[in-house]
Design brief:
The chain is mainly β. The radius of gyration is 13 Å and the shape is globular. Strands 3-4-8-7-6-5 form a 6-stranded antiparallel beta sheet, with no helix packed on it. The chain has a 3-stranded antiparallel beta sheet with strand order 2-1-9, with no helix packed on it. It is 0% helix and 37% strand.
């Protein structure tokens, strides 16, 4: 989270989690995503089509590794969460591709 790394695909805690609940920032506990917006992206990382609310996350430009991507951070503590891409499902068309290591799942 602090070094803005990426965990291995298909080898993380939540990529295949299908339980109902919420996903909070592991750094500060802020509510970030809910299981209602989680979907199977086939990428090996937990993916959501929208944050829990409009103030949950912040976005910045990431130009590392010769790519231009939209990096996602927790709006409260600034922890790196992952990236957002424009290849997700309706209704938003977005795929918030998150690192399990930056999330804490709370079963409901």
């Amino acid at each position: 989270m602090r070094k803005e790394g990426t965990e291995p695909a298909f080898n993380n805690n939540y990529w295949n989690n299908h339980e109902k609940g919420v996903y909070n920032c592991i750094g500060c506990g802020k509510l970030l995503f809910t299981s209602n917006t989680k979907f199977e992206s086939g990428t090996g990382w937990p993916s959501f089509y929208k944050p829990a609310n409009k103030n949950a996350v912040e976005e910045s430009r990431d130009t590392q590794f010769g790519m231009v991507r939209r990096e996602i951070h927790c709006s409260q503590c600034g922890s790196h969460l992952g990236h957002v891409f424009e290849d997700g499902p309706k209704p938003t068309g977005l795929r918030y591709c998150m690192n399990s290591a930056s999330l804490q799942f709370v079963k409901m």
